[in-house]
Amino acid sequence: MSNLEKNPAEVICTGPEQPGAPPTVLPYRDVPLGGPRAMTVRRSLPQRERSLIGAWCFVDHYGPDEVAETGGMVVPGHPHTGLQTVSWLFTGQIEHRDTTGAHALVVPGQMNLMTAGSGIAHSEFSTPATTTLHGVQLWTALPEQHRHTAPRFEHYEPPVLEVGAARVLVFLGSLLGQTSPVSTFSELVGAEITLPAGASLELDVDPAHEHGFLCDTGTLTSGGAVAKPGEIVFHPTGEARLTLEGSPTEQTRALLIGGRPLGEQIVMWWNFIGRSHDEVVGFRADWQRERGAWEGEREGEREAAAEREGGHSGIPADGSPPSRFGKFPEAWETTLPAPTLPNVRLRSRG
Description:
9% of the residues lie in helices and 41% in strands. The protein is mainly β. α2 runs antiparallel to α3.
């Protein structure tokens, strides 16, 4: 999913909290994805108080939304760098296409993992048969040594684990004796956990990891902290066993996201993750140039546009533009232009 904010803030993400600190509840803010009838998501990462849980750096929780009212998910081709996207649905279907040539459906209980690496572009549209859309979009930041890796797309359907009364699907990393086979570049864990009314679950976890529990339905209590839908109970490192308690009167469903603290400073703006303001400016210029070439702009217009972006055209001697984001799918009719960059260089927080 794209960050469709018209004026996205530049976020400098820094280090972890002190080990052994008590759990806290991370709130969310409502972010509309487009016009007045468009979907609104509940964004709980990044935020001022916390920008990372392990390498997880972006959490959008949406729905259940009636597609007839919101128009569903309509996200044309857009770029990413330096991250992995994790698409996970509870209800509905989404059609994915990207510049590696991948074309797949996102369906409930099955994970689509897209590694952007050095650069990728993709689109996401809810299918015509989808009447209700409900799910999450998650990003993880790639560590320095792997952030320029080749882009790729992977799909995985985790088995259902019955743990007491709980139902668990482990889609990333290892938990409860299950290990996901998909590629990760830092120590990560991701799982869906469903608790019937009044049930609880004890989890043995890696004390070197941070953990967050995103509440989807019901209410979730862990370590005395209580989260409502869209909120995250965050546990810093230092805990080897975590207890989850669901709502006493209704089913509770949550997503576990966790991992070893990234230990690196990243700069995140719009759909790009880099290590400096100038690097992100370069990613944006590459995208604007490539989408402009794809839309058939005249060479002179591309040159002028590149100059307005503060750079150069980057066109080799043979006249063909270099490609960071790959070959655009033939099915695409349009792509998203990058927003205007902030006119100041923001300082690091924390």
